[in-house]
Amino acid sequence: MAYVNRTNAESGVNLLALRSHNAALVLDLLRTAGEGGISRLELAERTGLTPQAVSKITARLRADGLVAEAGRRASTGGKPRTVLRLVPEAGHAVGLHLDRDEVTVVLCDLAGAVVAERRVPLDLGAGAEAVVESAAGEVEALLAGAGVSVLGVGVALPGPLDHARGVLHRVTGFPEWDGFPLRDALAGRLGVPVVVDKDTNAAALGIAVVGRESGVGTTGDVSSSPLESFAYLHLGTGLGAGLVIGGGVHRGARTGAGEFGHQVIQLDGPPCGCGNRGCIEALCLAAVDRGAVGEAARVLGVGAANLVGLLDIDLVLLGGRTVAAHEEAFVRGVGAVLEERARLEGVDDGAIPVRVAPGGARGVAEGAAQLLLAPLFGRGED
After folding, report:
1. What is the dihedral of CA 284, 288, 291, 296, to 10 degrees?
2. Distance CA 93, CA 154 (A)
3. Over the stretch 153-204, which tens digit does the pLDDT of each residue have?
4. Tens-digit pLDDT profile for residues 226-255
5. Residue 370: HSE in the Cβ half-sphere, 13 Å Cα cutoff
């Protein structure tokens, strides 16, 4: 493709072939060290690898253009240590968020930083051929003239879907997508690897990968422990959840976990696009449409309390455009339900905290890019 020159394309191939466990450990430490870098001795100490093994891995990474020297650091004895850093511009991934009414596409470097972005309207009900062509066109427009190495495209959209095969199921409100092989269709159109996942899983993955660096933890500061167990609840044009358990995204045996919005909590409730009645999604969106945001927040809180009770998670994060429009109301309303549950159960350490997820409007698209990037650093695979 015109936007991938020969040198960078070769680097991209090397990146995709890197997938050794030890190389991933080293790369992840280099990524988290940032511009300040990290020495080979520190890499050996923190990975448990021998200094000789670290030297071989870093030599290969330097030859591939992924790692560079970042200066020298004084040591307690002997000559100063050479410090190494990740070269973020050595590779890039595209994150594509297909929402029901718009498409967001971002280009991220190896460190996950967004270097380009586009957002345009989209009709997910326009038919598979039209949507694929529109999405591919936006990717090509973003990359035109960029001259960067592209590892592939991560695609995030409403579920349910089969993450392993990249095949959609009956997307709520759009049954015509049932069985469509989106991964293969886009890969064939763009000529690069494609990974498909639910919007909620992608966002949760992005948060899990960069959560500590962005200061989002169980105590809300940079010094808190990494995000190991949380639920990301996404309320936009629909409602779903991304679940991170033990530090990894929980997709389930059939990659269908997280269909949070279709819990039935009112047997005689309003009809939902999934075919049931009284789903949390239908109740939340109906309340928002009436302007009853407080009611919507309490309904969302009931679902969040169910998740906390079932999974014993550490944190609830809220995202999506509907939450973004009423952040304080949703955090307060969901938090109040969780606090009441904790009080009734006599929980000594208080309610599970509720916060707005980082990433804002492009959080899902950034997470979609991590579908390609995270495995290079030993992240994101279950």
Report:
1. 30
2. 8
3. 999 999 899 999 999 998 878 889 999 999 999 999 999 999 999 999 999 9
4. 578 999 999 998 999 999 998 899 998 888
5. 32
- Classify the C-alpha dihedral 162-258-105-32 as positive or negative: negative
Our CA angle for 18, 20, 26, nearest 5°, is 85
Kindly list the distances between the CA atom of residue 132 and the CA atoms of 89, 93, 167, 180, in Å, as whole numbers in the listed order: 28, 18, 13, 11
Distance, CA of 356 to chain centre: 15
How far apart CA 242 and CA 228 sit, in angstroms, is 13
Question: Which string of b and e fits 242-258 if b means at least 16 CB within 10 Å?
Answer: bbbbeebbbbeeebebb
Omega of the bond prior to 271 within 30 degrees of 0, cis? no
What are 354's strand-pairing partners?
Answer: 316
160 by DSSP, 3-state: which? coil
Q: Which two tokens stand for residue 7?
A: 């040198």
Tokens 């992840």 found at: 28
DSSP at 225: P
How are beta strands 150-157 and 92-98 bridged, if at all? Answer: parallel
- Which positions ≥6 away from 315 have C-beta within 8 Å? 218, 227, 229, 230, 231, 352, 353, 354, 355
